[in-house]
Design a protein that fits this description.
This protein is an alpha+beta fold. It has a single domain, classed as Roll (SH3 type barrels), CATH 2.30.30.140. About 35% of the residues lie in helices and about 30% in strands. It contains two helices and five strands; from the N terminus they run H-H-E-E-E-E-E. A hairpin with a 2-residue loop joins strand 3 and strand 4. The protein is elongated.
């Protein structure tokens, strides 16, 4: 993972992080973490949004499946991009897109 402000790499032990989260019992702390994660997802999605242009090739990453699709940006909307995938147009959230 790269810190975009400093350009340095941040190593995170994901298994340890998930184990710690699973042990937490305080609902207020869990809600705070959920809020922080949601805010970070929005920040990353906005950064992706301003980097996309019509005609850019993109990779669409499904969060629930190991499926990855490729497509081309047709239009950039406020919260989603219209992506042409195999001749069909789909509205895709920025958080699922990665520029190729």
């Amino acid at each position: 993972m790269t810190n975009h402000k400093t350009g340095s790499n941040i190593e995170v032990d994901k298994k340890e992080l998930l184990a710690t989260l699973m042990q937490m019992r305080d609902l207020d702390e869990l809600r705070l973490i959920r809020s922080a994660i949601s805010d970070r997802i929005k920040e990353v999605a906005n950064a992706i949004k301003y980097d996309l242009r019509i005609g850019d090739p993109v990779l669409i990453k499904s969060p629930r499946k190991e499926l990855k699709e490729t497509g081309t940006i047709v239009k950039v909307n406020r919260t989603r991009a219209v992506v042409n995938i195999s001749g069909k147009e789909w509205n895709v959230p920025f958080s699922l897109l990665a520029k190729q």
